[in-house]
Specification:
By secondary structure, the protein is of the alpha/beta class. Helices cover about 15% and strands about 35% of the residues. The N and C termini lie far apart (about 50 Å).
Length: about 210
């Protein structure tokens, strides 16, 4: 028995080992509770792995769907990089969030008033915010606090990599296989097979795939 334990912990941080398993258990409970509270508006596929709590809010007749083999890190004690918050998926006023198969997110906030789609095999690094509306009307300054703007679709393609601390704003389409550099603010469409970075985000170069 001691030899077996020694083999397990030989190249593993013992504290992290137990944190990982504890937060994984919390993740199972979180998904189960979300299924219970949103039986008709939350769907998740097979073989998901979630560490920590998934903060899910569906305010209205919207829907959140997640494909197979989902990978979500929603706990700072499980993450190698500091997370500002748990993973948060929020649907407002009928907003749709559709996450494809084999997608990974880390401390990511996604807020949909209209439609946000994330393609298969895309990975999203810690602290990224994706939001398909502004929150308030830009041009109505005198009554801005009491106004709400309409959403515009966000489409993120397959095999994309969104760097940590990025912000993706409404009406944006990101092509397949594209990389968004850390700390970028994406306000315009991004071509496929490319690297983008900066604030505002601009094309750096094309990828040779």
């Amino acid at each position: 028995m001691l030899k077996r334990l020694n083999k397990i912990f030989k190249n593993v941080d013992i504290k992290f080992y137990f944190f990982e398993r504890f937060t994984f258990f919390i993740g199972i409970i979180s998904i189960t509770l979300n299924k219970f509270f949103y039986p008709n508006s939350f769907v998740i596929g097979k073989n998901y792995k979630l560490w920590g709590v998934l903060r899910l809010l569906i305010d209205g007749k919207g829907k959140v769907s997640i494909g197979n083999n989902f990978h979500g890190v929603s706990s700072s004690i499980r993450s190698y990089i500091t997370l500002f918050s748990n993973c948060r998926l929020t649907s407002i006023s009928g907003g749709i969030i559709k996450i494809g198969d084999d997608v990974g997110i880390n401390g990511t906030t996604i807020v949909a008033k209209k439609n946000i789609e994330i393609g298969k095999n895309t990975i999203i690094a810690p602290n990224t915010i994706i939001m398909d509306f502004d929150g308030h009307e830009v041009h109505n300054s005198t009554k801005r606090i009491n106004t709400k703007d309409a959403g515009e679709n966000i489409i993120i393609g397959k095999n994309c990599w969104i760097g940590m601390n990025s912000i993706i704003l409404k009406g944006v389409s990101i092509g397949d296989n594209t990389v968004i550099g850390a700390g970028s603010v994406v306000t315009k469409n991004c071509d496929k097979n490319s690297i983008y970075a900066g604030n505002p985000c601009i094309k750096i170069k094309e990828l040779k795939l």
